[in-house]
């Protein structure tokens, strides 16, 4: 196998988000610095001091055999394949992978099942809800929708870093020659239980997510899905594909240091590992898509780790799109990778919105409030999960 065949390139993007669906709408939402935040509609928030979330408006009903997160993921995968301008029949003739990251999957079905058990008892549980909430159904549903049978279908439940884990899994599968293409991404729909847990932790913002801001108060949940079509370069060129960007490398670290507090030295090691795997020097990075949760603990730690990797005063512009779409959990890194591809492809830096005053502990250029015209050739995407499950992906402009 040639080196060219082992290169992994992105040829299609599919997105479901609170600021726009599809590559073009999502890209426009990022450029305009839209906010997807609004009052929670899917459960009664009486008793909670906060009621904000970035929900996806007017999502089509889809297949009733699937829960909402699965329907969003299937829709994103279908959009990605359409964007790649490849007929599913072409994919059916090649070995492939479907890797989907998720934290909670169709957990809203668990809410409904719980309500049924409490109100009517176990004999009255809805068997459809009981069947469809398993995380393992998400990539299988994508395969079924596209009619793909010669594929590995895997779910990666690596919490907030799951989307990057899925992309990294795809890079490995392409590099090894196991597959010619991979559909990589994530999907999630937080439920009442997850909202309640984060509320009790004091990690939720009352009004808006303000990463790196002196007045930041936490994160706001989001929902949605994002899927990237990743192909071996020779496979993509043979079919005349348009190449949006190249996946240059990735790295994973897992330290189990603390349930929620990330360990700076391991975050630093993860970023350095990704750059090394990509063969990229720090000064070549033109943009960092930060994990950027807007919590008191995460933001200064991530900024300190960035200073270690790039050098004090040499950190490239840093954007936190959770300020716009909320924390989409297992889909968050997939949304960020999609934003990274768009930044490279379309020549702009997404903004960090809701910004008022930079925290002195976060001495970075966070692209405040307004997107910026630029031509980043290399983008680093960070994803830092609970329990110290960290993943960093490096994307770049494709060069023949």
Q: Report how far apart the termini are.
A: 17 Å
Q: Total number of helical segments?
A: 14
List the helices and strands in order.
HEHEEHHEHHHEHEHEHEHEHEHHEEEE
Task: Report the C-alpha radius of gyration, rounded.
Answer: 20 Å
Low-pLDDT sequence parts: none
Write down how many β-strands occur, each being a DSSP E stretch of 2 or more residues.
14
Report the biggest beta sheet as strand number plus sense, adding barrel if it closes: 10 strands, mixed
What does the average pLDDT come to?
94
> Order of strands across the widest beta sheet?
5-4-6-7-1-8-14-13-9-10
What level of helicity do the residues show? Answer: 25-40%
